[in-house]
Amino acid sequence: MDTSSDRAGARWATLLKGPVAVLLFGAAVYLYADRSIDLPPPGQLGGAFWPKLCAVGMAVAGVLKAWEAIRARGRPPEEGAACKDMDNRKLFLMILLIVLVVPAIAMLGFPLATALFIGIFLRLAGARGRLMLPLVSLGGTVFLLYLFVKIVYLPLPKGEWFFEDLTLALYRALFIL
Amino acid sequence: MNGLELFWVGLANAFSPLNFLMMLTGLVIGVLAGALPGITMLNAIVLVLPFTYSMDIVPSLLLMTAVYGGGIFGGSITGILFNIPGDPMNVPATWEGYALHRKGHVAKALGVAIMASALGGFLSCLVMTLVSPPFARVALSFSATEYYAVVFLGLVSVVVINTRSVASSLVCLFLGMLLGTIGIDDTFGSARFTFNSRLLETGINFTIVLIGLFAIGEVLEQLCERDKIPDQGLKERPKVSLMTPREVWAFKGPLLRGFGSGTMIGMIPGAGATVASFVSYGIERQVSRKPEEFGKGSWDGLNATSSAINASTGGAMIPLLTLGIPGSGATAVMMGAFLMHGIQPGPLLFDKAPESVYTIFAGMILCNLIMILAGWVCSKFFSELMRVPETIMGAFIIVFCFVGAYALRNDTSDLWYMAFFGVLGYFMRRYRLPIPPLVLGIILGPLAERYFLTAMIASNNDVSVFFTRPVSAGILLVSIGMLFWPLLQARMNRRKAAVQAADGAVS
What we know:
The structure holds 2 protein chains of 2 kinds.
Chain A: H1 4-36, H2 49-72, H3 88-108, H4 110-125, H5 132-151, H6 162-173
Chain B: H1 3-14, H2 17-35, H3 41-48, H4 57-82, H5 91-102, H6 106-140, H7 144-161, H8 166-180, E1 183-184, E2 191-192, H9 198-201, H10 206-223, H11 245-250, H12 252-267, H13 272-287, H14 299-323, H15 329-340, H16 347-352, H17 354-383, H18 390-409, H19 413-430, H20 435-458, H21 465-468, H22 470-506
Antiparallel strand pairs in B: 1-2
Helix pairs in contact in B: 1-17, 2-3, 2-4, 2-17, 3-4, 3-15, 4-5, 4-6, 4-14, 4-15, 4-17, 5-6, 5-14, 6-12, 6-14, 6-17, 7-8, 7-13, 7-20, 7-22, 8-20, 10-18, 10-19, 10-20, 12-13, 12-14, 13-14, 18-19
């Protein structure tokens, strides 16, 4: 059974967990900077001075945040302060896609990775249509290739191994090279 | 010939077909390059440089100054439309412009950005023409202490950006400053927070941070909201609505303050448009009659910062033309163009080639007026993209962000930073942590460190140097005043309310 002191403790923990985390992070960064960065030349502040100053600033801001949280307890939340209700599954999959496209661009090359990314992203975002998805992903990729490779001369990643040859073949087919 | 006569000759030269064509071409290239993420204004100036080899110095300089002015403004277009600032200097315009867009004022926000930028640039070019030499002498006397004071003023504006929680702003500001220290330190060459990783040794480019935090976070928030039907894009043709003369008059205060701070800061070598945009935004927030609107779509904020960024271009040309000191990357490339043509910019330039100098002055003034047309046409073009459904727009915004990150150094490892900061941007929104202070910290933190340490080395670690030099002492006092003004204001308001309540109880 919950006692009132347990509930009060839980309330304080919720209130102060963020500020305490900031305070501890600041202290940890200070100690790490102090130990890992080269010693300063004699009579000078050295490379560790500024990060340590920022770490102290962060810890002080954490204390300020705690003070702000304690002062604001019991007050009704501000207008518009509530978080939006998010579709967490969709969000997780989109974040995963954004992370996975990074190695995909390096490995498969920009054209293939981008076409796949746009197609899957549109599907996840709720776009439908048998023709629309391939049309947008392939057409969009070709447009980007002309814009960045042909016009701006940006050497976009071509991929590795077989995929590099594939990208070069595509460039030739599109008269980009 | 006196100055006025030279100006008229310069104006006539600027209207010659080749010079006029160069200005028009430069503006269109500049605005488009500034608006496309990944192609910065500086990239565009470098790209047009080879085309100037076979030209005379005047059309070459007019082409480059037009790209410079147009490029600085161009980043505001994608900032207002898609929350993607083209360059760091467009960040404050993005905060206000995008908020105004979300409120349904996209046409007016674009129009205000165009007009305010053009007016700020126009007025600063007039100043450049009239008072270049004396102002340049003042700027030449500046040392690291004054530069530090100006950057400190920019950092202090963080307090006035977010009034909801000063502590949250400070946490994010210091986090941004810490992120800015990652990599090899400029002054002492020490490796900091690199964990023996090649990826971290080169440091974090702030353009990647700001594109990721603003754009990807926004896309995720818009598309992952539960039970929301994705927006199918605007049905009607989007418009760009320029300011009327009456509206310009109504916003004369923010426009003039933006122009003043932008020109002054632009003249300081190394400070540039980014510092000018943040400082003018902070000053405007302090003096505005509607400070509560800042961050939620403030016309005053958008006017001031748009005016300041282009006003800095006229200011930045002053030390280049009169002293031969390039104060930014863009003016350094222009200095290269001068040298390629065998001309050394500096005080002697006014004696040796006064007609050329005044043609550049007149051309820059004209450029800012033509920019209204070029900005309007390019904004209309980018506004058409608003008719594309939200899902398709979201996918392409993310791809553009990745291309933008890659284009900075042609290095795929920067894509990891983009993904990380994109996801971080989403979670900062979700947990209501303010993004602008983090961006401000990562942009201005390394500058503040460099100037602070240089001043300390020069003064044998004597901190009083910041208060013994009048200019830096003055700027620091203004900064401290800005820092404590919100607290004082709140205290005065509470006291006023208490007195009114007591009066009410007595009567």
